[in-house]
From TrEMBL:
UniProt GO BP: methylation; pyrimidine nucleobase catabolic process
Identification of the protein by name: Stachydrine N-demethylase
InterPro entries: Flavin_Rdtase-like_dom, NADH-dep_flavin_reductase, Split_barrel_FMN-bd
Key words of the record: Methyltransferase, Oxidoreductase, Transferase
Residue ranges annotated for the Flavin reductase like domain, each copy included: 15-158
Highest rank taxon of the organism: Bacteria
One term of GO molecular function: riboflavin reductase (NADPH) activity
Length: 226
């Protein structure tokens, strides 16, 4: 597609192919009231000095307060906080009534149970079309170890669900060898025998399934956790 015929919706969808985490950017308005909204344009920028950025739409209700504030904070939502993301992306009188929050050292609202938070002083505000890029210098942060919430193509996902360490589905694949040759299963689409489950021991389940199919497995020499 050429630049002069861009369909904004197609462009938005193409940008949305890039999976991100989800944050809520917060600050205080001149009266000291908390302001904030959902933003996935967060990027870490520099370790030394510690810089990050987030893009803020000029049409956002909180745009004047955000860009006038001396400090802002980024709350990286954890995978259980999809409802927080939805709440802070919709117009509402008092979004903050729905969350448990406290103030960071420079007064920015920080939510409970986030994957991580950063409070920043404003380092630079860079013009960028219908948005500005707010570059912040980190003045305080905390990381909880919780998994972050994922977002791609307009939908939420939980990256931790694919990891056995996070208590998600676990699986085993067997590579079978018979008479010094690999022994895949299936008629046309040959595949390695596999088994996955939310709990239990997939390797043992896979072994008993193979036994039930009449395959007597003598030596398990390799097991992979997926
Ligand atoms: C997952 C997600 C990510 C978003 N990312 C951004 C963003 O990076 N920057 C932005 O300005 N708006 C972003 N938005 C839109 C704002 O959250 C939304 O426009 C919000 O309602 C603006 O608040 P307002 O009512 O104060 O205008 C995002 C929305 C969602 C659901």
């Amino acid at each position: 597609m050429k630049a002069d015929v861009f369909d904004p919706r197609a462009l938005r969808e193409a940008f949305g192919a890039f999976p991100t985490a989800v944050t809520v950017i917060t600050a205080s308005d001149p009266a000291g009231r908390p302001v904030g909204f959902t933003a996935n344009s967060f990027t870490s920028v520099s370790l030394d000095p510690p810089l990050l950025l987030v893009c803020v739409a000029k049409t956002a209700r909180d745009y004047p307060a955000m860009t006038a504030a001396e400090h802002f904070a980024i709350n990286i939502l954890s995978e259980a906080q999809k409802d927080v993301s939805i709440k802070f992306a919709r117009p509402a009188e008092d979004r903050f009534a729905a969350v448990d929050w406290a103030r960071a050292p420079n007064g920015c609202p920080i939510f409970a149970q986030v994957a991580a938070w950063f409070e920043c002083s404003i380092h630079n505000v860079i013009e960028a079309g219908d948005h500005v890029m707010m570059v912040g210098r980190v003045t305080a942060f905390e990381s909880s170890g919780l998994n972050g919430l994922g977002y791609a193509r307009g939908g939420y996902f939980t990256p931790g669900a694919n990891s056995s360490a996070a208590g998600g589905e676990i699986g085993a694949v067997a590579v079978l060898e018979r008479h010094a040759a690999l022994f895949p299963l299936g008629d046309q689409n040959l595949a390695l025998p596999s088994y996955s489950a939310g709990s239990g021991d997939p390797a043992k389940t896979l072994a008993s399934q193979l036994e039930r199919s009449g395959l007597s497995v003598h030596d398990w020499f390799s097991l992979l956790d997926l």
